[in-house]
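USER:
Try writing one entry.

ASSISTANT:
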Amino acid sequence: MVLFFAVPMGNRSERRRRANRRFILHTTNAILTLQPDAMRGARTHGAEEHMDISYDTLKGGAKLFGVDLDTLGLLGGVDGTAYAYTQAGRQYVLKFAPVPGERVPGLRAKLDFASYLGANGVSVARPRASASGALIETLPFPGPRGQVYAVTASERAMGRNAFEAREWNDELFTQWGRLIGQMHRLTKSYDEVRPWPDGLIGDWEGEHYSFAHSCEDEAVRARWFALADVLRSYTTDRDSYGLVHNDPHPFNFTVSREQGALRLTLFDFDVCLYHWFMTDIGIALFHALWAQRIDGHSAEVFAARFMERFARGYEAENRLDGTWWQRLPVFVKYRQILLYMVFSHEWEQPNADQARQLRDWHNSIVNDFPVVNMN
């Protein structure tokens, strides 16, 4: 099969860039991932760069979750701030993030999904309820009207990212597939037990519309809309479509060894939504190839090896009809276009490597070039 890698860009005014920046970065999980063991070495956001939280807010949040204020240790963040703490020998993260008040119910629903997965054996950084039993609490935010601090707690994802841990290998690829397959198997039953109403978490159409609205490059927009037409032709049955993580890249899980066995712990469900299961798989393949930094025949060889191991792990937990595996290039293409739009915002003054990456992606998108070929 042919795997397509592409992404869009357009010249934006400074005003448009600033208006879209917060949405774009949040949607792609670039700034609300406050699990420092995964971020360290991969991003520049650390304890030295964070949003200041007042003493009263910090004290109030700690009280809501039954945490001793003196035990909190600053981790960092950009659009929020996270603190580490320990209770009963276990490590947790307390997070303060300013959000529009109307977003709180949706965030609560996403935390419930993560909690459901964790309760059913998926290795995730499980949300921790407050003293009142809530997965999310709110506090006043001294900023734009209508915003509040969303205060949450979760288990701390222990370990390191795969690159720091030097675990970029076949075993990791298999376990990565197994983790996503396990999640997809469980999501098939989640709608039968979820406590929140329909529509509280959005779907891929909303994501697609938001990015289309932010893109001013007409050639890229045309490719983005054409891809949506393809997706709308697909069925949305429970065996192929449901609530997915939507961002399971290598910096959204940590890697550790437990009695010699490799363990991946997934976190950050901020952008989970209803999408085809294949989108999580396309994200994994896209980021694996990007991390590998290879091209040509080497990319083809690596992609074949990666997918063989990944699919072996995935199908040990969840089976997909062969037709869906043949559609994998469509979802890899979706990811690349989306990330191109993200980084054309994020890299406002790109260095030489970033500028080259954006040019290559843009050329690939508008000309519909395949990035890697796989048989």
